[in-house]
Amino acid sequence: MRVELSVKQVQGDFVKKVEEISGQNLLSCYQCGKCSAGCPMAFAMDILPNQIIRLAQLGLEEEIAKSNTIWICASCYTCAVRCPRGVDLARVMEALRLLTLRKNINYVQPIEIPPETLEGMPQVALVSSFRKLTS
Ligand code: SF4
Ligand code: SF4
Questions:
Q1: Other CB atoms within 10 Å distance of the CB of residue 7
Q2: Ligand 2 pocket member 41 (CB < 6 A)
Q3: CATH class for the domain made up of 7-103
Q4: What are the structural domain ranges in the chain?
Q5: Which of 6, 35, 54, 75 is deepest in the core (most CB within 10 A)?
Q6: Is the pTM here over 0.85, yes or no?
């Protein structure tokens, strides 16, 4: 992945908001990778959890938005338990989801879900999906 960095981005509002909402100091992460090694959902993510926090440290909001990772995260807290630096990455993921949803972009359009798919889906999966993926 090729990215361009600027001081404005790294010290910008996005980083401050993620830290404020999550209550975490992003710079505590030193990229050991233990969060990603233990993440039960990593197999389905296009960017690993430790890479997401690196992108967040650098203020690379758009790169995070292109990834499926924050939506795949199951908030299981395995990463938070494993982190040697005490970073609660599950909270960081939640902050990233909140900031994305505040842009009022719907990632699921309920009306576009085919009836045959709806029939086979557990109700709890639908509700969870609407809560996480719609604004
Ligand atoms: S386990 Fe903690 S310190 Fe290690 S990469 Fe993940 S968030 Fe960073
Ligand atoms: S909270 Fe999310 S990122 Fe952390 S281990 Fe669980 S699924 Fe992976």
A1: 8
A2: yes
A3: mainly alpha
A4: 7-103, 107-135
A5: 35
A6: no
Residue 68's identity, in one-letter code, is N
Cβ–Cβ < 8 Å for 135, 106: yes
Burial class (CB in 10 A: 0-12, 13-18, 19+), 94: middle
Out of 27-36, 41-50, 70-79, 116-125, least confident range: 116-125
If you take atom 6 of ligand 1, which residue's CA is the nearest one? 35
Ligand 2 nearest-atom number relative to CA 78: 5
Among 79, 81, 85, 96, the mutation site with the greatest number of ligand 1 atoms within 8 A of its Cβ is: 85
Pocket of ligand 1 (CB under 6 A): 29-35, 50, 53, 82-83, 85, 87, 89
